[in-house]
Structure formats: structure tokens, C-alpha cells
Amino acid sequence: MKIMVNGQEMEIADGLSVDGLLTHLAVKREYTAVAVNREITPKGSYAAVALREGDRVEIVRPMGGGR
Amino acid sequence: MYDTNLVLGGKDFTSRLIVGTGKYATHEIMRQAHEESGAEIITVAVRRVSLPGKGESLLDFIDTKRFTLLPNTAGCYTADEAIRTAYLAREAGLGEMVKLEVIGDARTLFPDVQGLLEATKTLAREGFVVMPYTNDDPIIAKRLEDAGAACVMPLGAPIGSGLGIRNPYNIKIILETVSVPVIVDAGVGTASDAAIAMELGCDGVLMNTAIAGAQDSVAMARAMRLAVEAGRLAYRAGRIGKKLYATASSPIEGLPDWTS
Fold first, then answer.
1. pLDDT reported for residue B260
2. Residue B55's pLDDT is what?
3. CA pair distance A45, A61, nearest whole angstrom
4. Is A59's CB within 8 Å of B51's CB?
5. Is pLDDT above 90 for A28?
6. Known active-site residue B23
7. B159 touches chain A (CB under 8 A)
8. Strand, coil or helix: what is B97?
9. H/E element, B218
10. Whole-angstrom Cα distance, residue A18 to residue A34?
11. B208 touches chain A (CB under 8 A)
């Protein structure tokens, strides 16, 4: 199925969880936050949240910035 | 000379300089500049990770045990975006402090104070330590305080402009209007600008471009540390009044007579 991750279209296995997606993309968990369809997914729910066709996922971290 | 700490969200800080993480030539130069600045609080933006996850990360160059991270909502143009960004930052484990920015216009990066007030109210109610970037407007500063802001952060001049403290009198009025800390955010170009902010009685200064954009960021970080300390000390020492004419320092009595 197709989902959008950080604005990029991606083909992933049906029913993949947020946890599975982060592992698949080799994203570090520390200081990372995830939102699916504008709603924040709490860290404790990564394994429980299954992604669905057309979901829009945002994965963010601290980056350089400020003034 | 004994000084009180800067207190934000119940946490005590001895340094009154807050620094950023943007625009540095390299992460290593940034790390050294942070060290020289003596800062205890470092502001960071919250952005999409590059995919797949790879390469060096900003946080490989910040010792999060020593420094307090201050996520900001830079780039947000509505209260809703800023609120969502603050929640994301908290979920990412960056804590309750947030440098709240609701930008009104891309060219000036001046704040949208209406959205700022709205977001401040919501986030303060939700338990965030809200540090709003605002205009040098005492009325809005007071409203932000009433809305639950932990401090107010008036701009000295536009973000990244290096124009210094353009309206010291307004900053002075803000200091007399609110009882929360006043931290000048934006506009500092060089050390004297930071010293001026502190001499006015501000509780702190936040800057990024002045250090990151300097030819020698590490040296400028040290200059800023000294300027903030010097300005603070001068404020607490109590400066002399300004006079139009001279006042001699040496006594008039006891001058030898050279008349012929």
C-alpha cells in the first residue's frame, strides 16, 4: 500500500505499524516524534498503531535553528 | 557581586545568554561556540527527518545532560501550527519549555501577536513553559504575561538583521510593565548590542545569527558571553546619570598658583 512519509510517497507492506515503519526507515527513536494524519502518535503506541492506505506520516527531530 | 539566577519554568540558570543551532559552518564549530558562550539553554527547531535515517545528527553535537534544549516553533504562521509543533517537541522528549513563534510575514519575520496570544493561552493551560517571541510592544507583553507566558521575548530588531536594540525605550517600558523575565530575542549584531540589552535591565538575551554568522563563531560566542556578563554587572552596579556638561573628578581646591 501507499502512504506519504514526510511529503514523500512510499510503498510499504500492508498493515505495517508505526514501529515497523521507523525500523524500516532506520530512524533513531531518541528525540523523535511521529504524527499520523495530523495526530501525534505517543511513543508507547508505535507498535499498536497500524498504518493504512493513504496515511500521511510526519517524522520529526530537533534540527539547527533559531534567530 | 552576588546575582540571582534566571528562573524559567521553575528551573534555575546562571547564564543569561541563550544560543541557537542554525547557520553554523559545521556542527563541530557550533559545539565549540556553545562551549565558549557559557550558555545553558540552546534553542532548536523541529523538522522532518531526512529519509532514510542517516548521517550526523544535530544532537550528536549537543550534550543534552549539560544543556537544556529549548524547542522553537520557527516557521509557524498560525497558532494551530505552533501549538502542534509544541506538542510534537514535547512528545519527542524535548521537555515542557517552548520558544513560541507565530510569524506574521515572511519578509520581516515580525510576530503575528494575535496568533501568539492565542497559542500562549492554549499552551500555558496545557502545562507548557511558554516563552513567546514578540514585538517591543509593552501592551502585548502585558497581555502575554496575563495569558500565562513564563517570560516575554521582545525583538531588538528583525530576526537575523544584526541591527541591535532599535527601541531601548520600549524595552525599558516592557521591563517596568511585566513581572516575568524579559529576554531580548533577535536583532543582536555584536557584543555591544547584547551589553545594551543587559544594561537596560533585561533578564537575558537570545541570539543565533550574530554568533553563527560571525567570521569566527567561537570567538564571537566568547565575546557575547563577556558582553552579557558585563552588561548585567553594569546594570546591577547602577550607572551614573547623564549630564550635558563636564563634572571634574579632581578637587578644585589645592591647585598651585602659576600666575605671574
1. 84
2. 66
3. 18
4. yes
5. no
6. no
7. yes
8. strand
9. helix B217-237
10. 8
11. yes
**Would you state the pLDDT for residue A67?**
56
Mark yes or no for CB contact A40/B159 under 8 Å. Answer: no
In the structure grid, which three cell numbers stand for residue B148, read together?
500565562
Region of B126 on the Ramachandran plot (φ > 0 left; ψ -120 to 50 alpha; else beta): alpha
CB-CB under 8 Å, B52 with A27: yes
> In angstroms, rounded to a whole number, what is the distance separating the alpha carbons of residues A47 and B160?
42
Closest alpha carbon to A44 in A34, A56, A55, A54 = A34
Any B CB within 8 A of A60 CB: yes
Q: Which three cell numbers stand for residue B42?
A: 540552546
Q: Which residues have C-beta within 8 Å of that of residue B240, sequence separation ≥ 6?
A: none
pLDDT digits over B235-253, tens only?
A: 999 999 999 999 888 888 8
Q: How distant, in Å, are the alpha carbons of A64, B5, B16, B32 from that of B57?
A: 10, 31, 27, 16
- Per-residue pLDDT, averaged over B164-182, amounts to 97
Cβ distance of B94 and A62 shorter than 8 Å: yes
Interface check for A21 against chain B (CB to CB < 8 A): the answer is no
